Amino acid sequence: MRYRRTRISILGCIFLLFSLTVNSQFNTYSPYTRFGLGDLSHGGFGQNQAMGGTGIAIRDGSKLNYLNPAAYAARDSMSVLLDFGINTYRNQYNTTDLSTTWTNVNLDHFAFSAPIGKYFALGTGIVPYSSVGYKIKQEYDELGTGDAIDLYFNGDGGILKYFLGASVELFNRVSLGVNMNYLLGNINRERSMQFPRNRGFAETYAIDEIDLSHTYFGFGIMYKEVIADKFFFTLGGIYDLQTNLNSAFTQTITNKFPGRSSYIDSVYISNVVDIVSDKTEETITVPAKTGVGIAFGIPNKLTITGDYYMQDWETVNNSALSAEGFDLANTRSIHAGIEFIPDFEAFRGYHNLISYRLGGFYKDSYVKVGKYQLNDYGMTFGVGFPIGKTKSSLNVAFTLGTRGTTENNLVKENYGILSFNVTLHDLWFYKRKFD
Fold first, then answer.
1. What is the mean pLDDT of residues 145-160?
2. What is the DSSP string of 125-136?
3. Which helix (H) or strand (E) element contains residue 313?
4. Enclosing H/E stretch for 17
């Protein structure tokens, strides 16, 4: 008797459930997410995150790597990959005179990859693209009158990326890939002004709701050479096209007059409230992104890799994102990582099968506050635990990073990200025979 294992319907249910769950989950609490699209995601899954965020040249048949769509073709033609994970953020914020800490745990991603024949493969999933989360209070004393003024800034939301990609392998060395990416999200920003010493003054509240969506394409290429099964090197490159996000802005301004009364159509109204609402359509441009990467080492034992990205935010007009004291800046980032497996084929000693990973990164943020372009740098490390005698694994990654500065009354952030993800590798597309 012959049969083919088919579990796509189960995957579809899981995918839909995860989509509905993750849609409201965003992982940040940073005052700098008040600007632009928020905090852009570090990207990648457990292996990538533990190796400094690298992935452009990582070609691993037992891991799902969406950072370069050309990597989908790395897995064999009879297996599928299912990857899902969670992470926890811990941020400490420091200024010249105070410090605060924030912690959060969230679902992070869901992804799936499967073969399409011998030389083709697809990958699809849901990953975070950006996150917004902040609560800021600024206190002032009006020099002319001595009145106290409190300003409040609150924000939340973010953008998710749904990707669907395909890859083809040519000549057993070259692979090409393309991702169709759909960005969808909602960002809410609130501002208010209050007078704590003069409760009779009008209090102003402004709420901006931004709904964003659009599709863009990203392309990837990889070239891999293996010499006598003792040494390999891989070259990779990616290019994401520029995209113009369709953005619907709804702004509501409310003025409250405590203690003030009025008659409207002979009806007595106390605490008069004026509300003005306006809806507009704006375009937010995300510039093209280019990246190159290299990896080399010993097959199934040692991988050393590095990536370089660049994205020119200064060349695009983003008036919809403009704010006082904030500008967009060109970004450059460099990532490096190493993975070591003591003995991939060991029959004894579980520690010999574990993947040990280490990395680091340095990034120039696209956010420029005043004259300071924010820098983000840190180190990463992690391990990959094989599950049984299969190619499935449990991956743990930890990132320690620093962003910002305390100069000119700005905020310096020290953060840690602990990530857990499970990669399930299974042979779904083979036939068994029973006598």
1. 83
2. EEEEEEEEEEEE
3. none
4. helix 8-22
**Running DSSP on this structure, what letter comes out for residue 51?**
T
Place of tokens 């499970």: 422
Question: Which among 100, 90, 109 is positioned nearest to 41, based on CA atoms?
Answer: 109
Burial label for 306, CB within 10 Å (0-12, 13-18, 19+), is buried
Q: Region 47-71: what's the mean pLDDT?
A: 94
Q: How many CB atoms lie within 10 A of CB 58?
A: 26
Q: Which CATH number is 2-433's, of 3.90.1150.10, 3.40.50.150, 2.60.40.10, 2.40.160.60?
A: 2.40.160.60
> What's at 36, amino acid-wise?
G
**Minimal CA–CA distance to 59: which of 295, 240, 220, 290?**
295
Cβ-contact 77, 226 below 8 angstroms = no
User: For the whole prediction, is pTM greater than 0.70?
Assistant: yes
DSSP per residue over 210-244, as a string? EEEEEEEEEEEEEEEEEETTTEEEEEEEEEEPPEE
Q: Which of 25-39, 108-122, 145-159, 187-201 has the highest mean pLDDT?
A: 108-122
For the chain, domain boundaries:
2-433
The pLDDT of residue 21 is above 60: no
pLDDT at 267: 41
Q: Region 66-84: what's the mean pLDDT?
A: 88
Asked if 300 contacts 341 with a C-beta cutoff of 8 angstroms, the reply is yes
Q: Which residues pair with 31 in a beta bridge?
A: none
Task: Phi first, then psi: give them for residue 252, nearest 5 degrees.
Answer: -125, 125
